[in-house]
Amino acid sequence: METNGQSAPEAATGDPLDPGCRPHVRVEDLVRGAAPAGERAPADAGAGCAGGERAPAEPGAGGAPGEPLTAKLARRTVPGDLYERGPEEGYLRCTACAHRCVLSPGRAGACGIRFEQDGELRVPFGYVARHYVRSVETNTIFHVRPGARSLTFGMFGCDLRCPYCQNWKVSQALREPEGDGEPIDISAADLVETAVAAGCGVLASAYNEPMITAEWARAVFTEARRRGLVTALISDGNTTPEALAYMRPVTDVFRVDLKGWSADQYRTLGGRVEPVLAAIGEARRLGYWVEVVTLVVPGFNDKAAGLRALGAEIARVDPDIPWHLNAFYPRYKMRDRLTTDPAFLVDVAGVAYARGMRYVYVSNVADRVRELSHTRCPGCYEVVVRRFNYETQEVLLSGGACPACGTRVPGLWGPAAA
Ligand code: SF4
Question: According to the UniProt entry, where is the signal peptide (predicted)?
Fold first, then answer.
């Protein structure tokens, strides 16, 4: 499994308040045929979710046959936390992602799932698009509870629009006619209970961009923390300091995709590189455990000099941040591309090591580059965590340190709950 792809905002539609990210969806279209979302919103939804979750929409309530996904999702919303008022009377500015959409009355943001209604921001709550139990390593997280099971859930929609997204059926479900469109209603407590019953030590939000549903993720993670689980955001990194600070009290891990180095590359995806680099630094400063993934796509971001520059940017924040170089396989709108040559990834990893990074992995190539899936001690180079194809085979660390030379190896180690 490789990095989770993300998506891009809709084309601008002419809001003079924000030329970069304009509201483009009318709420009357979102909720057509559905009862007003406000009728199901809890009255006291405030700045946080700690101590209790908000009431989700009734499962299936008010749904008409053939109801569009946008309407189904609009019925499953609560008042949001991540926004500010302005820049004019009646307008809201969403702060969940770096687009910072200005929402005029009755309009949704570029993600299509957060919208203004009756003076408040409405945000998704009380459902998932899908959830699976797999090893934590399948989230491309290598320094957290190796070998633990992870319940990973995803939602619908995305702030980016990557043409190689492996999860496009949910991330692009509001844009693609072939998307998967049936929300699974579930409470935060029941989702976490599912994870605990399956023996999970980790709970992660992935498959689409979790920050666009930060209020829901925070409610789920609050419950997960209460049950002793490690929590992880699998993010495209196109987020804000406000959202990172909002999630940090209940989140341990920020696993971020760094998808390129140039404005042109990120324009293709519908974002900008600067907020992603800033988010990596800010997450580290806030105390998240951070791991970075770069999916190397032939003809898109497979230039050695550019990848070396990405490695340098990560090392500048902290050379202890693990960097995963993942191989691409043709899919979605990039079925005409070749797969990534593993030898090229090995070369990039070698340069990154030579320039001071301490944990560089080559993944998504099955067993062809097995040596670069292990964690090695940066002091004596002994293997301290042995892996094979996203599965941990052996953890040799002793109290988070190399058993041979005693060098500390950073990460959230410890016994897996599973
Ligand atoms: S999450 Fe991002 S794309 Fe969605 S409304 Fe907020 S700022 Fe816009």
Answer: none
Count structural domains, the chain.
2
CB-facing half-sphere around the CA of 241: CA atoms within 13 A: 6
Residues 292 and 387 in one domain: yes
Task: Give the domain range for residue 72.
Answer: 25-125
Question: Could you tell me if 31 and 115 are in contact, meaning their C-beta atoms sit under 8 angstroms apart?
Answer: no
How many angstroms is it from 95 CA to the middle of ligand 1?
7
Among protein residues, the one with the nearest Cα to ligand 1's atom 5 is 109
Prediction pTM value: 0.86
The domain boundary, picked from 106, 125, 144, lies at 125
Protein residues with CB under 6 Å of any ligand 1 atom: 9, 21, 94, 96-97, 99-101, 109-111, 114, 159, 212
Instruction: Choose one of 102, 104, 114, 161 to mutate for the ligand 1 pocket test, by most ligand atoms within 8 angstroms of C-beta.
Output: 114
Give the tens place of pLDDT for each residue, 250-259.
Answer: 999 999 999 9
Nearest atom in ligand 1 to 99's CA: 7
Query: In 3D, which of 132, 153, 137 has the Cα closest to residue 205?
Result: 153
Length of the chain: 418
- 99-121 residue pLDDT tens: 999 999 999 999 999 999 999 99
